[in-house]
Amino acid sequence: MPINILMPALSPTMEAGNLVKWHVKEGDTISAGELLADIETDKATMELESVEDGQITKIIVPEGTKDIAVNATIAEITVEDNEIVSIPKIAEPIEIETTKNNLSKPKQIPTPKSNDLGSNKSNTKNRIKISPVAKKIASYNDININNIIGSGPHGRIIKKDIMSLINSKNELHESYFVTERTGNAEIKSFITSNEKNLESILNIFSDRQYELIPTNGMRKIVAERLSEAKRSIPHFYLRRSIQIDKLLNLRAELNDTFENKKMKLSINDFIIKASAKSLQDNPKCNAIWANENIVQLKSSDVSVAVAIDDGLITPVIRDAEKKSLREISSEMKEKARKAKEKKLLPEQYTGGSFSISNLGMMGVENFDAVINPPQASILAVGSAIKKPVINRLGEISVGQVMSVTLSADHRVIDGAVGALFINSIVEYLSEPLKLLI
Fold first, then answer.
1. Count of domains for the chain
2. Could you give the CA distance from residue 311 to residue 340 in angstroms, rounded to a whole number?
3. Among 22-26, 45-49, 134-138, which range has the highest average pLDDT?
4. CA 412 – CA 350 distance, rounded (Å)
């Protein structure tokens, strides 16, 4: 029985991907779990594995093809008729009826319903059929999969079923899919109804020299999410200056002491730890906004903005309040390396209740950061600058002063609550020995 291998949604924000390399060829016999291809998403390069035993009968999309829409057919596999037909690793396809140069709207995926029997076990294998990613998301959000009827083949629970239950499924915009064929490859482009006409914009600059640079997947996602954030989130800003001479001295002493162990703490490591402890001290700020509800988290999961060639990504340091400065430093360096190599897994950059964006190392003195939804706050960190300061004796001396700005969502965090939060961060960074306790 032939079944399709689809372009999977390998990250929560992925709409299209690039097929970097095939690891199989037509005629190859494969087993479930065997590596099929390398897929470049908007965030990372990941591996696509087979979920079926069978034979590759047709490769539809050649390696090197870019901007392949999620759920587009990329290959065909033939399995034995007595096997249960499964879908690819991540997502159920959105069926689209198209003809060349014709437009049509995508069909809506049915909303999962509660199962009266309390389970959807397979008749043949006596188990609940659920995709690996759907299972992981359900487990993370404490969702009972016994009460779900999946919308996939034979009642298989897929990612979209779970996302709809936690009210975080991205709504399908009023849109169209345009389909063209190039050889065996099917290329689908997504056009929103309110998209500005590119040609009319370029006409304004028709007498000027320019280079047209199409945005990649990550840049599109950054643009969409941050534009939405500025439109929909009522930002307010709290600013403080911190004298960090004690922090710099402690950092230098620790780095010298543990030089043989190749440990090198950064200022950012102290900021992550200070933020994590401050979130515990101010639990109302350790929260996210979820469809007119406030979700207050128990652990301090801190996202840290990392600039990469294609845009921005925010690896998450989970349970940061429980980790030592050394552990935070080691984990942050490893995740920053993976981010720049586009090897971060989705679970390593999704989630988090609070973000840090540090441009101090680039000489920026202060700035206002945009909140990363659904989070409710983000800390913008500027550079440390030598300034005149007044010591406890009332004398003027020179000190290292760093500026920080807290951007907060007023739907979740009130002004006074935000003030206590940023004051707590300032206290920890001014007296960094408290971070070692």
1. 2
2. 10
3. 22-26
4. 20
Q: What is the pLDDT of residue 140?
A: 65
- Give pLDDT, residue 433: 95
DSSP annotation of 326 reads: H
Q: Indicate the residue among 126, 147, 165 that finishes a domain.
A: 165
Sign of CA dihedral 52, 57, 62, 63: positive
The residue ranges of DSSP E strands in 151-247, in sequence order, are 175-182, 185-192, 235-243
At 302, the pLDDT band (50, 70, 90 cuts) reads very high
pTM of the model: 0.62
- Kindly state whether residues 133 and 257 are assigned to the same domain: no
Residue 67 · residue 133 · CB < 8 Å:
no
- Report if residue 415 sits inside a domain: yes
> What pLDDT does 213 receive?
80
Query: How far, in Å, CA of 384 to CA of 380, rounded?
Result: 13
**Residues contacting 8, CB < 8 A, separation 6+:** 39, 48, 70, 88, 89, 90, 91
Q: Residue 307: count other Cβ atoms within 10 Å of its Cβ.
A: 14
Q: Which two tokens stand for residue 245?
A: 């001479």
410 has catalytic annotation: yes
Average pLDDT for 193-211:
73
- Residue 361 and residue 265 share a domain: yes
> Quick one: residue 127, left, alpha or beta (phi over 0 = left, psi -120 to 50 = alpha)?
beta
Three-state SS for 421? helix
Please name which of 328, 269, 280, 316 lies closest in space to residue 140, comparing C-alpha atoms: 316
**Which of left, alpha, beta for 342 (phi over 0: left; psi -120 to 50: alpha)?**
left
Domain that holds residue 377: 222-436
Strands (E), 305-351: 306-308, 311-313, 316-317
